[in-house]
Amino acid sequence: MDFASSLINWYESNKRDLPWRHTQDPYKIWLSEIILQQTRVQQGLPYYEKFVANFPTVKDFAEADIDKILHLWQGLGYYSRGRNMHVAANQVMDEWNGKFPDNYKDLLTLKGVGNYTAAAIASFAFREKVATVDGNVYRVLSRVFDIDEDIASGKGQKVFTEVANQLISEDKPDIFNQALMEFGAMHCTPKKPNCETCPFVQSCESRLHQNIDQRPVKLKKTKVTNQYIKYFLIEQNGKYLMKKRQEGDIWAGLFDFPQVISSEKDQKLSNGIIIENTGLDLNTNDIFFSSEPIKHLLSHRRLFIEFFHVKLQALLETQSEQHHYSWMDIDEIQSVGKPIILENYLRKNIY
Fold this sequence. Notes:
By secondary structure, the chain is α+β, with helices and mostly antiparallel strands. It has two domains: 3-214, Orthogonal Bundle (Endonuclease III, domain 1); 225-349, Nucleoside Triphosphate Pyrophosphohydrolase (Alpha-Beta Complex). It has 15 helices and ten strands. The model has no long low-confidence stretch (mean pLDDT 92). It comes from Flammeovirga yaeyamensis.
């Protein structure tokens, strides 16, 4: 079996028409690859188009205000991607004279660019013979060749990378990488793979051994913890008190409201708890509305969020300067980046 030829033939007949497949511009390929990390193509496509429209070149991206980038990123999650991209774009401008590095090794020097992304840019933009290995590739290779190495282990990742690099097409490394990922996304799917019309139906070792549903092997499970967040929408003269999340935070650079965070489901609110968490001497008697808890899932956390609306009866005293609070009107709030759970709530109840 000529794996590469069979795979490329399948791809030429079945590939999706996606805008980043019509360019060899490393900037646009980089943009698409970062956006599609942890994001489905259908969800990522409008973001890609929006970013290309707002920042046509890496120079435009580097010169952009990070607040605008995070505002446009709103809803994609994993906001560190947007922050890292801004750093990487400035690296390209400052360290590479405005041109993306043209090889896998040098691409790895860019902030937020790991092995997979560097391989994708190097092969798609510069046709370097280096394999891209993502979740789709793990699945396809583990099934076709019945590889039982744990994909969460360093050894397993090394094995799959070596196999992919042995299989990659000599003269079409870019098409091979696109094809392998597309095949995993569209045909050899996690559940109910389309085995009957698979080009590897006669040679797929996992099908022969009847263990397709056991490939790929991933032994390490992600531990998900519960977190209970109480947000305070504090209103005074048509403005709301907000704060910008600081470095070291998963939502760094985004704006949100004062909050009380707990691992306990039924933590009771008191002035002392509010002051301790927010630095604000907030009178709970001012609360005039609270929402039903809203569930929001992150990769490692399960959030249960309540919103408490507060109309101040007296001037609010701030006990701490560490929270970076500011009063913002509705137009200002709409213009800054926020966690998507806040944006959805504001659209429904405030805007």
